[in-house]
Design goal:
422 residues, mainly beta, Methylamine Dehydrogenase, Chain H, four-stranded antiparallel beta sheet, globular
């Protein structure tokens, strides 16, 4: 195993372990955003990337890890801050951003090719095309780089960018915390903007329609000219990893704990309730794999019927990735899990820190875009920051179970009910 270290001012010393959700105050930069408050720790907050037979994933300990399919560490590449975006990969390199404000391009063996500095933290995943690298930044800008790491052009929104940009044919879609979906040409000219009433999530295209969510609790469908076709209201906000599309069905998770399956015209097909925040699922072999902050990976058929579930040791906030008949699941409990397609655990890999990062989705004020957060000094912060209470499942059905998770710092017993299907 090789360990590549980049010099950085971000504190990389081991943090004290504790029982529950830990917020370290001394010398730690606390980022407070509309969707979450995240600090350094061992948690994995993004889906892994499978390239060839290697699994790459970023971690809140500041590292990009590379594992083989049996869970053996090939290398880790250290940056100066949490890495919470999914890396991009091609035949030549791996590309990812970090809270230290840099974009990194490394070889498949973990050696630095180049890095590009931005003006702020990078939360989004990178989109790599044949000619360009696209990513959003907390400074509110969409950056477009050449494959050599040189700037081709930039576009400024009026708020931080938390969700990934999306390229479709000759258009670039940029979601922003300024509450707008921005549509640009491939050379950065504004084509149109669509206004919502909250932070906008990533965009996905099906046919001639664009789908995206917002913190205003709506999933929007607009045509490629930016005209509203329909909107669907959840009961709580729709977060950054939503929506996803499979076989002409639109799927979105929500802070209300439900997965919603909709037709392309916005009609609800079914919803599946969990006990905490959900993100859009991933898909493999005709199955739907739904992660939830309640610590479960739910595996559903295309009618929304539960087939099996896997309970991690903590919350799950990213959909799994796949290699043949194995799935790789990021855990906020500091583990990467490998399961077979029936939900049997094959192995787990522990990151370098046993201390969980802090993530708080309810008690965080909206970010002030004009304010820059300084390092927090002193020990006045409460070292324990529990998760939001588990959301009660939708009524109906008879299946009952309970969960135990160190993620919340205590036993969390709840009653889960199987859903009624339409």
């Amino acid at each position: 195993m090789r360990d590549y270290v980049q010099e950085s001012s971000w504190p990389m010393e081991p943090l004290p372990d504790a029982f529950g959700m830990v917020e370290v105050s001394a010398n730690t930069r606390a980022i407070k955003d509309p969707f979450f408050h995240l600090t350094i720790g061992g948690s994995i907050a993004c889906p892994p990337r499978v390239s060839g037979s290697v699994i790459y994933f970023g971690c809140c300990d500041g590292s990009m890890y590379a594992l083989d399919r049996e869970g053996n560490e090939i290398f880790r590449f250290r940056t100066g801050g949490p890495v919470i975006g999914t890396p991009a990969a091609d035949r030549d390199a791996i590309y990812f951003g970090s809270y230290d404000g840099n974009i990194y391009c490394i070889t498949h063996e973990g050696q630095l090719l180049w890095k590009f500095p931005t003006n702020d933290i990078v939360i989004t995943s990178l989109l790599v095309t044949d000619n360009a690298i696209y990513f959003g930044c907390h400074d509110g800008q969409l950056y477009v780089l050449g494959r050599d790491g040189k700037v081709l052009w930039k576009y400024a929104t009026n708020g931080p960018i938390y969700s990934d940009p999306h390229v479709h044919k000759d258009m670039v879609f940029v979601p922003s915390a300024d509450s707008n979906m921005h549509a640009l040409s491939l050379d950065g000219n504004v084509l149109w903007k669509f206004a919502t009433n909250g932070v906008v999530s990533r965009a996905r295209v099906l046919g001639d329609s664009l789908y995206f969510g917002s913190k205003d609790k709506n999933l929007y469908s607009v045509n490629l000219s930016g005209e509203l076709l329909w909107k669907f209201a959840a009961s709580e906000p729709i977060g950054p990893y939503n929506p996803s599309i499979n076989r002409s069905t639109i799927y979105t998770g929500s802070f209300d704990g439900n997965l919603y399956a909709l037709t392309a015209e916005g009609r609800l097909l079914w919803k599946f309730p969990t006990n905490d925040i959900t993100v859009a699922p991933s898909f493999h072999s005709g199955l739907i794999f739904l992660p939830s902050f309640d610590g479960n990976l739910y595996t559903l058929d295309e009618s929304g019927r539960l087939l099996w579930r896997f309970q991690a040791k903590g919350g799950l906030c990213a959909p799994p990735s796949f290699l043949n008949n194995r799935l790789f699941l990021s855990g906020f409990d500091c583990n990467l899990y490998c399961l077979d397609m029936k939900g049997t655990l094959l192995w787990s890999f522990r990151t370098s820190m046993g201390t969980l990062s802090t993530i708080d989705t309810e008690n965080v004020p909206n970010a002030d875009f004009e304010k820059r957060f300084e390092p927090v000094q002193g020990e006045e912060s409460n070292p324990y920051k529990p998760l939001s209470p588990a959301r009660a499942a939708e009524s109906g059905g008879q299946d009952m179970y309970s969960s135990h998770s160190d993620y919340a710092g205590h036993d969390s017993h709840y009653q889960g009910r199987s859903k009624k299907y339409k």
